[in-house]
Every structure is written in C-alpha cells, then in structure tokens.
Design goal:
The chain has 313 residues and is of the alpha+beta class. It has helices at 3-18, 59-66, 121-128, 156-167, 220-233, 300-312; strands spanning 34-37, 40-41, 48-51, 54-58, 69-71, 79-83, 86-90, 96-99, 102-105, 111-113, 116-120, 130-135, 140-145, 172-179, 183-189, 197-202, 208-211, 217-219, 242-252, 255-264, 272-280, 286-289, 295-297. 23% of the residues lie in helices and 39% in strands.
Length: 313
C-alpha cells in the first residue's frame, strides 16, 4: 500500500467518526465497554460495567490475560488473586479488601453483575499494582503491568519520526501525548483537508494504528497483510473468497503473524472453511493451518487441495 493510499484510507475511516466532534472520536453512550489488556482487546462478553460512577471489570478473563492466579471458593468466602509478589483477598459485597494482609478500602464493593464476578479498577491498580486507564469517550478500559523504567520503549520523538516516515511529505503531524497507557497519539492533517485524523503507535512494539468508526484500534500492518494475502490467494481460488480477521496474533520462529480465516459462503453449505492463513507483520512471509492444526509454510498446492476438499463437503 503506497503512502498516499494509507493517508486516504485513514482520512476516509475517520471523517465520519469526527463529524460534529471537532476531530475527536466519541463512542455511543450505549456502546458496550471494551477491555484492553497489554494492548489487545479481550473478546469475551460482559467484560465491564458501570456501577455508581465506577468502572467494574470481569476479574476472571482479566486475570487470565494478566496471567494472574485466581482462587474462587464460594460466593460468601474470600476470593484470592495472586499476581507477582502481590496477593489480594476480597469478598463479594464488601468494600474491604486485603493486599498482602494490609487493609484496602474500596469505593465500590466487588459484586456479581450479569452473572459475572466484577471488581472495581481500584482493586487492580492498588491491589495488584498494575496500570489502569479509563477512556470514557471510547468506552475502553486499558490494563497492563507496570513497566520498569529500564524497559526498552520508543521515545515520543522516535515514535513521531516513525509515523512521519509512514505518511510521507505534505502531512503535518503533532503529538497529542500518551493515550491508553501504551500508545503515543499523533494528530495529522494536510493542506488539502479541513479535518484532522489520528495515528496511534504502540511505544513498546512500534506498531502503528488508526481508529475505526467503532473507536477500535485498527492496525495498519494488519490491513496491509490482508491486502497482500488477498492478492496471493485470489488467483488460486475458483470462486470469490471470504477472508476475515482471525482476531489472533501468533509468534512463529520469533516473528509476529496475523491470523486470517479463508472460506467460501455457499447455498447448500453456508460455510466452506478452507484454512487459516498467517501473514507476518511486514507482509513478507506466510504460513497456513493444516487439517490437524499444524502451522506450516504456505503452499499453493496444499491451499488448492484444501479449497477443493472444502467445496466437496
């Protein structure tokens, strides 16, 4: 994708989101609250809710994402979470929790909401000692471990340089600070457009994102990977393919890959699954999933075989 095409894609993507908001993205107040852990959205339902003006999050999926140990006993007995050197004990319906044996008073008690055990962000930030942020305009909660000062991360200057190199000449880019814990935010515009658009760069991975109309992060490298994959497999297929985001990233030989599901939609069988293809972040290498769930190098011959097998089902 050339730089001009990327620029136009971002502008078209954000123009509707920014109309009437001065260029800022605002989520529908009825929109479901999303939860982001370590820069990735959790996919489960009923992840968060508002209670007495406080954001509550589902402790089970968040604990799994943080790789914390969660111990349930019964509804009336204390629940324990172990994360690193910290152990938090709390009881549903009670505002008093304990962090390594020391008392912590919560603004809102942990409770069951929509048949899901939820806790206030305060329990995570002051109990597990993790960083949390609430982006009200987008209805997004961000959670991640505290990063050590020595941890390698892009500086804001380095991030700005990376964004500028993507957009090319003729684009003015200004820093808007840090958003959602791990993302530098930059606002860009050109003399050709009256409105602005936004770019977000993960300061720990260097990956650049835009914002979609539903106020989610959209990886530019994933969009490029989808385009390259489509161009690669389309000549091999006998009919129009469907390629969908697999909502997964996979590390193969130390390199990050995006997952895409390839399938057909038919009349007799509504879903002809072909395979899951993996495209590297730089869109230069490809893998695929075999029928016994093994990841192998992408093969045109094997892909065609899987396609024919799918159409016979």
């Amino acid at each position: 994708m050339n730089k001009r095409a990327i620029q136009m894609m971002l502008v078209l993507c954000l123009i509707l989101a920014s109309i009437g908001t001065g260029g800022h993205v605002h989520a529908d107040p009825t929109q479901t609250i999303k939860v982001m852990v370590n820069g990735d959205y959790l996919k489960q339902d009923k992840l968060a809710a508002m209670k007495n003006g406080r954001v509550m999050v589902a402790i089970n999926p968040v604990s799994v994402a943080l790789k914390a140990t969660l111990q349930f006993q019964s509804a009336k007995k204390p629940i324990k979470i172990k994360y690193g050197s910290n152990e938090v004990t709390f009881t549903l319906g009670q505002k008093t929790a304990y962090v390594n044996g020391k008392k912590l008073t919560l603004d809102v008690p942990p409770q069951t909401i929509n048949n899901t055990t939820m806790v206030p962000l305060q329990l995570l930030s002051k109990g597990l000692i993790v960083d949390t942020a609430w982006k009200e305009a987008w209805k997004v909660v961000a959670i991640e471990p505290k990063h050590a000062a020595s941890e390698i991360a892009l500086t804001e200057t380095e991030a700005l340089k990376k964004v500028k190199s993507l957009l090319g000449n003729g684009v003015t880019v200004k820093s808007k600070g840090t958003d959602l814990l791990r993302f530098y935010t930059f606002q860009g515009g050109t003399s050709e457009y009256e409105y602005d658009f936004f770019h977000y760069i993960d300061k720990y991975t260097g990956e650049i994102y835009s914002v979609t109309l539903d106020a989610s992060f959209e990886s530019l490298s994933k969009a490029e990977g989808l385009k390259v994959l489509d161009a690669k497999v389309r000549p091999l297929l006998t009919r129009e393919p469907n390629i969908e985001d697999g909502y997964e990233t996979k590390i193969i030989n130390g390199k990050k890959y995006y997952a895409f599901d390839v399938f057909f939609v038919g009349a007799s069988n509504p879903y002809y699954y072909v395979t899951t293809a993996y495209v590297s972040v730089d869109a230069k290498s490809f893998y695929m999933l075999t029928k016994d769930n093994k990841v192998v190098l992408f093969s045109d011959k094997l892909f065609v075989q899987f396609m024919n097998d799918a159409l016979k089902e």
